[in-house]
Amino acid sequence: MLEIKNIDVFYGVIHALKDISLTVNEGEIVTLIGANGAGKTSTLRTISGLIRPAKGSVHFNGEKISDKSVQDIVKKGLSHVPEGRHVFASMTVLENLELGAYLRNDKKGIKEDFEKIYARFPILEKRSKQHAGTLSGGEQQMLAIGRALMSRPKLLLMDEPSMGLAPLLVKEIFSIIEDINRQGTTILLVEQNANMALSIAHRAYVLETGSIVLSGSGKELSQSEEIKKAYLGG
Amino acid sequence: MEQFVQQLINGLSLGSIYALIALGYTMVYGIVKLINFAHGDIFMVGAYVGFVSITYFNMGFFPALLIAMLFCAVLGVVIEKVAYKPLRNASRITALITAIGVSLLLEYVVMFFAKAGVRTYPENVLPNLEMTILGVRITFTQVCIFAVTIALVILLQFIVHKTRVGKAMRAVSMDKDAAQLMGINVNNTISVTFAIGSALAGAAGILVGVYYNSIDPLMGIIPGLKAFVAAVFGGIGIIPGAMIGGFSIGAVETMVSGYGSSLYKDAVAFAILILVLIVKPSGLLGKNTREKV
Ligand SMILES: Nc1ncnc2c1ncn2[C@@H]1O[C@H](COP(=O)(O)OP(=O)(O)OP(=O)(O)O)[C@@H](O)[C@H]1O
Ligand SMILES: [Mg+2]
Fold first, then answer.
1. Distance, in angstroms, between B187 CA and closest chain A CA?
2. Phi and psi angles of residue A137, each rounded to the nearest 5 degrees, phi first
3. Which of residues 41-100 of A touch B (CB under 8 A)?
């Protein structure tokens, strides 16, 4: 479904991504783990078109998207929950969700999705008239996920959804991610919480200073000695 | 008391004009974080377009108002595309200097075509009516200025809060990356913002023309600065703040000229700005935003 071939990304002279290739198949949860500054966010931003690779290509459902605008990529069914949530702070929860459906005009479908998202995140319905900036961190994360789902994505990119959340909430977010996947959305998940990410992922890639150093099934990697040492604290 | 109400009425007309200009300042700042120093000159161009429409094409007030707004909207978009867009990722000071350059360019291009001297709007663009209520004189022109301003502000609020493009404008001004991820075209949204802000300045231009009758190529400098003060006073980037700021500066100015001396009116306006900024750096309605991590 998603195929990244040999991309290189630079920020000025900083070589952030070095010859990265990875694939995500339809129906999978694939996770990309790595330490701070490894290039996880850069990878996701390249996929959604916010930054351009200097070399290499990104294909989505067989079509090259690495030369397309962000809007066109969103239109094709790719949605990105950015690192740090980036909800629209001075807009209401309702308006945030509406913006998630910005490119759609099927009123009926949008209404259905509102109901689905409110069923999944009841707190968002309760807070629907409240400014997003007044929500707690966990609520903002739910809003960011709900907002991304409002475009009915085929592929959902998630950048550290568990960042800064209490352990109980982290569990909840991960079970929500699994559930979204079960309902038919393919997921590429970036995480520093390698333990949790590997436990729900079908496949995983490990990123180290801009290069992919390991890949395999979630199970394999969570048992690999190297991974245990570097990311799982033992 | 009469004197006070009279000054307040006069202040409302002047404040309307500042508010219209301040709205454009604040909207543009909100979306591209640029103090568009050419904004006061767009207001001046609006006054000239109104002048030409009325004097040479014998248009009535409202058609001329529309033409001025339209012309300024296009001008604003062109300026953004040609002068500011290429510098969007450059340092702020670069963009600011460019804005000053655009300002001078507009002033001297108009001077070239229209001569440097003062031009006078015809006397009777709007019917020369006035009424006196309890000793307070209100002219029809003042009523018109106020009514046009309120109508435009209501229209603006409607666009910003109820329409798709308005929501896009707010989203882009809050968070460009996130807005893009929603599928919003940031460039088009910025263009729309420049168009609307410049159209409001154009409206202010023709209103000044019919209110004070005389216009000149440098007429945009001082009102532009004061509208900037109004925008900062209300909280830059905040639309209702620009309104309140505009009306406050207008009222203060007429009060100072009415009770004291018109010599001091500008000094007082700027002194108030400094005071507000010392007490509340983010402006009257500004809030010190915090982000949750
Ligand atoms: N806008 C930028 N300008 C310059 N360098 C950048 C920029 N964004 C990222 N980098 C650099 O690129 C490298 C990869 O950053 P990236 O944000 O992709 O890492 P990450 O894996 O997401 O890290 P984290 O876990 O901290 O979010 C880092 O060395 C970072 O300093
Ligand atoms: Mg990151």
1. 12
2. -55, -45
3. 48-50, 69-71, 74-75, 79-80, 82, 84-91, 95, 98-100
